[in-house]
Amino acid sequence: MNFCSHCGSNQLDCKVPAGDHVARYVCQVCGTVHYVNPKMVVGCLVVHEERVLLCRRAIEPRYGFWNLPTGFLESGETVEEGAIRETWEEARARVKVERLHSVYSLPHCDQIIIHFVAQLQETGIEAGPESLEVNFFAETEIPWDDMAFSSHRFALERYFENRLKPDKQTYLGSSCLRTS
Question: Which residues form a coiled coil (predicted)?
Answer without folding.
Answer: none
